[in-house]
Amino acid sequence: MFDPYFLQQLAIGVSLGMIYALMAIGFTLIFGVLNVVNFAHGEVYTIGAFAGLMAITAFAPPLLVVLFIALAAGAFAGFGLERLAFRPFRRFSDEASLKSRAMREATLMSSLAMSIIAREAMELIFGSQFQSVDLAYLINKPIEIGPITIVNGDLIILGITLLMLAGLQWLLKKSPIGMSIRAVSNNALGAKYCGINTDRTIIFTFIIGSGMGALAGILVGLYYGAIFPAMGFTPGIKAFVAMVMGGLSSIPGAVVSAMILGLAESISTSFMPSVWSDMVAYAFLLATLIFFPQGLFGARRERV
Amino acid sequence: MKFSRRTLLALTVASVMLPAASQAADSIKIGYQLPLTGNTAQYGQNFKDAAEIALAKFNASGQIDVPVEIIYEDSRSDAKEGVTIARKFVDDDEIVGVLGDFTSTVSMAAAQVYKRSGMVQLSQTASHPDFAKISKWQFRNITTQNQEGAVNAQWMIDQGITKVAVIAEQTDWGQSVVKGFVDPFKELGGEVVYTEFFNRGLADFRSIITKIEEQKPEAVYTGFFYEDGAQFLKQVAQLNADIPVYSTSAAYNDKLIELAGEAAEGLKLTATFLPTRTDANVTEFVSEWKKGHDNAPGQFPAQAYDAVNIMLAAVAKAYPDVTRESLRDAVAATKDFPGVTGNTSFDENGEPLKELTKATVTGGVFVEVK
Hints:
The structure holds 2 protein chains of 2 kinds. By secondary structure, chain A is an all-alpha fold. Chain A contains 12 helices and 2 strands. Helices cover 47% and strands 20% of the residues of chain B. In chain B, helix 2 links the parallel strand 1 and strand 2. In chain B, helix 2 packs parallel to helix 11. At the A-B interface, helix 1 and helix 11 of A face strand 7, helix 7, helix 8 and helix 9 of B.
């Protein structure tokens, strides 16, 4: 069972899962606070990748600086996104509007609209083909561990995912802004009545979540060496599936589910044609929804 | 004074009238339907540029006494638009032959009109197996996967490779790549140990590569376009899978080397056009092309250039009696036409019989393998 071939597939699965997890964290954070799916998260991811790429072509900074530039671009994109697509629907703060389903669905559509506008704009400016990336920046240098091969990008992505998870947990549990994020996500109206500035909290959530999304974009872009305007679509779907499987608002749940997805994909390729491996991932989603309607980690009361 | 003024007047009138008269009556018109707007516009634009180079050269050569004109119509890669243009072309009695369209779908839709009305149609790129079979009026200047697969199969056997894994994208084209290779390869005594299809745009090939390695083939034959190709090659290098990769002309693009870098080294493929070839006609075309473009021409513009030249040569052959019928017969009789994409003849179905060039990536460029 544990021959090198299987171990190699396992390693690939873990690295795929990590990539999905990276994206799912920011996605889940924003959902947790607003209870609305942010369809533009995939485009924030792409914007992060393009911002990093432009920095690389313009003045070739060290990798760490590239990552911070992507982070900043993502934070800025998140701020703008909140302003354009989400804020206008929160201008009525009475209880009926806050609980209104129509209001939430309108927000969903406006984020979808923003995502289409952003993607088409990038296609107009850059063209829809793969952009050329300076090969020296790619994080795909092989590292041999016994019989299996991983790349340095796997380690970098693992490190950053763990750092993001831990940092987020610290932020949410210890810092004042994190506590207000948790308060708003539990009960927006209650938080408001207690004197928490919900608007500011939501903006912060967007900045943090989108920054993480953009960071994921540049990391995955450099991992595969593939940066193009539609790159956010597939990981966006996978992050969405991971979020639903994990119970919608649980970040650790989303990360665990992302790992399950990655492993399912790589291992299923061993047993069936690769065109079907997506089906396995979605079968997991279906099974989760049937047997754990709350998601794998959604039963707990604590949100985010 | 009076006399000279009258002469002057007569001369002026004559000089204005004469070229106009000859243009109206005696120029030979050819239609070219191609996408000039829409999401495949970049290809159509390149075809037009290549056609202009070919046409200017032909008209300057003075092979026939009258100029040839090409009338471009924008089909936007839309089948309905393609049919409308085809009707317009057949209704225009002055048009004797048609070039295009770009995609198989549009070309085949328009082909029905040309079939009914009897107008020769020569597409530079329509590669669907059924296109050239529609009627005796259809011709193409692109090789099919059956031809490329056979050349690759022979190439591998010559290199002593008998165990091969095959992967291709999950499309009609991908299926034709696999079929076109596997049949001749088995006939030559080769063994295909593993076949796999993948969705176009797959980001991660590592699971597939690991599975290929498990089967221990001596080479991989691949049906992908350059973007998927670059991803695949990078990940093969990343997993240290030391397997020679063979591919088709679809992967032939300088962008592949740009995207994959050193991982592209050693890739072997068949192609019909290499801008680095030193044949006189290739260097002439490349230098003309570079006057208007930053990069060397790719395979598609080269195919358009040859298609236009084949048509023009047929016009010259049929001249002075250029009708739709005589032009069709002249195109069909094309034999060993020395184009930039190799020597071209047509078989009875209008399929081009071309010699394919074998190429490999060495030192960051495609070079010909003799």
